[in-house]
UniProtKB/TrEMBL annotation:
This is Probable F420-dependent oxidoreductase, MSMEG_4141 family. GO terms for molecular function: oxidoreductase activity, acting on paired donors, with incorporation or reduction of molecular oxygen. The lineage of its organism: Bacteria, Bacillati, Actinomycetota, Actinomycetes, Mycobacteriales. Pfam families: Bac_luciferase (PF00296). One of its GO terms (cellular component) is cytosol. InterPro entries: Bact_Lucif_Oxidored, Lucif-like_OxRdatse_MSMEG_4141, Luciferase-like_dom, Luciferase-like_sf.
Length: 283
C-alpha cells in the first residue's frame, strides 16, 4: 500500500523541461539559481534514474521530476527500487512522471491503458505514494486516472485550451503541469521552422498526439507537411521575452498550477533564454 501521509514536492509556478540526453548537473544548478521550481527530465530516462540522482546531488532544493518514465522500457519494480533509494537520500524532492509511450516506437504496446493500471498497481504494492507521481495524460481516460491514482497530470505538446479542458476533468485539487515549447526571437520566419522541426518529428507521426490535436479542433490540413503556421504558433510560444511570458501565462489562466518550459532549439544551452524569461516572469 502507498503511504497516505506523503506530500507532493513543491513545483513552483514555472519549471524547465529538458531531455535527459545532454542534461548536466551544472545545468541543474543554474536552473535552481534562476529560481525555477522544478527540472523535468525528459526522453524516457532509464529505470535506475541515475540522472535524477545526479541532479539532486548537485542542487539544494530544486524539485526533480521525470517527464516521463516509459512503462515499457522501465519496469515498475525497478522504478520503485530507484524511487525509494532517491527518497532516502533526498527526501521530498523527487516527483515520478509516468507514461505509456507510443505504439509507433516499437514497444510491446498492447492494451496501454490496462498496462498503465497494472504498472500503478505494482508501484502501490511497492509503497510508492500516489502523491509522488503524475501521469502523462492527454485524453479523458488517462486524465481521469491521473485524478484517482496520482497527484495529477503532466500533459505534453498541448495548448491552453487543452489545459482548460484537463482542469475540468482533474478537478480543482490535482496538479496540472503542462509542458510548453518556447523559442526566443522576434522573427517568425526564423522561429517557426525551428518550432516545426521540434513538433513534426516525431509528434505529428504519433497517433496519440495527432488524436489529441484533432480533439482540440485541428484538421488534417493543419497536421500535414510539418504543421500549419497556426498549429506551430499554438504549440510553440515564440517572440521576445515579454510575448513568450504572456503565452506561458495563458496556461495558468486556463487552470495550470505549473508550466514546464522547453527551450528550443533543444541541443543549445538553454540557460541564456531561461535567464531572460526568469526576469520577465518574475521568478
Amino acid at each position: 500500500m502507498t503511504d497516505s501521509g506523503a506530500t507532493t514536492p513543491p513545483l513552483g509556478t514555472f519549471g524547465v523541461w529538458r531531455t535527459a540526453y545532454g542534461l548536466t548537473p551544472r545545468q541543474g544548478t543554474e536552473i535552481e539559481k534562476l529560481g525555477y521550481g522544478t527540472l523535468w527530465v525528459g526522453g524516457s530516462p532509464a529505470a535506475d534514474l541515475g540522472i535524477v540522482e545526479e541532479l539532486l546531488d548537485a542542487t539544494d532544493h530544486l524539485t526533480i521530476a521525470t517527464g516521463i518514465v516509459n512503462i515499457w522500457t522501465a519496469p515498475a519494480a525497478d522504478i520503485a527500487e530507484s524511487y525509494h533509494r532517491i527518497e532516502r537520500r533526498h527526501p521530498g524532492r523527487f516527483l515520478l512522471g509516468i507514461g505509456v509511450g507510443h505504439r509507433e516506437q516499437g514497444q510491446a504496446y498492447r492494451a496501454p491503458y490496462a498496462s498503465l493500471i497494472e504498472y500503478l498497481d505494482v508501484l502501490d504494492a511497492a509503497g510508492v505514494p500516489s502523491e509522488r507521481r503524475v501521469l502523462a495524460a492527454l485524453g479523458p481516460k488517462v486524465l481521469e486516472l491521473s485524478a484517482t491514482r496520482a497527484a495529477g497530470a503532466h500533459p505534453y505538446l498541448t495548448t491552453p485550451r487543452h489545459t482548460h479542458d484537463a482542469r475540468a476533468i482533474l478537478g480543482p485539487d490535482k496538479i496540472l503541469a503542462p509542458e510548453e515549447k518556447v523559442m526566443l526571437g522576434t522573427d517568425p520566419a526564423v522561429a517557426r521552422p525551428i518550432g516545426r522541426d521540434a513538433v513534426e518529428n516525431p509528434y505529428l507521426h504519433l497517433r496519440n498526439y495527432v488524436n489529441n490535436l484533432k480533439r482540440l479542433g485541428y484538421r488534417d490540413e493543419d497536421l500535414a507537411d510539418g504543421g500549419s503556421d497556426a498549429l506551430i504558433d499554438a504549440l510553440v510560444a515564440h517572440g521576445d521575452a515579454p510575448a513568450v511570458a504572456g503565452q506561458l501565462r495563458l496556461h495558468l489562466d486556463a487552470g495550470a498550477d505549473h508550466v514546464a518550459i522547453q527551450v528550443l532549439p533543444a541541443p543549445d544551452d538553454p540557460i541564456p533564454a531561461l535567464r531572460e524569461l526568469a526576469a520577465e516572469l518574475g521568478i
